[in-house]
Amino acid sequence: MTASEREKMAAGEWYTCIDPELAGLRSTARDAIYEHNTMPPAVRGNIGAALAELFAEVAPDAVIEAPFHCAYGINIALGAGVFLNAGCTILDTAPVRIGNATLLGPGVQIYCAEHHKDPAKRKAGLEIAKPVVIAESVWIGGAAIILGGVHIGAGAIVGAGAVVTKDVAQQTTVTGNPARPIPAP
After folding, report:
1. pLDDT computed for residue 183 by the predictor
2. Mean pLDDT, residues 67-89
3. Which residues are annotated as catalytic?
4. What are the chain's domains?
5. What pLDDT, in 10s, does the model give residues 145-154?
6. For burial by CB atoms within 10 Å, which of 5, 35, 120, 175 has the most?
7. Alpha carbon of 123 to those of 94, 113, 169: distances in Å?
């Protein structure tokens, strides 16, 4: 029996995103995102109800400021005290786990999908999904980009505008493009 594109995506295999089942999941996510982004903050609370229901896990005190965008939502897990500032995007084609007390600045982007390097396969929608794990008490500065397959250790700091292409050790500060550790003061 051939695996579905969703099953291949979940297994970390090459899959095509041009697929009716995946398109349906993205459509459901867009509806939940629209509700979250357009609801008055006093009515919405920390996270719009449909968006929170979509997530794999979400602590009751996690906060997502609007606007927010994600690809599917079903692969996102937010720990206690997590805060995502306005303009964050999570392309969650693979699991994205954000640990307790972690703060994401405005415009932070997390990209799990990696498109194929062969132009013909890329045109056919072929991509692979790589998970992202952000441990507890991490601070990610505004407009930072976290690529798929990255693990950011507990207590780490990612400077504003950094592009994180490799794992970040705990209690380490990284900046730049590509992000590199900076010496402690």
Report:
1. 79
2. 98
3. 115
4. 5-181 (2.160.10.10)
5. 999 999 999 9
6. 5
7. 21, 15, 36
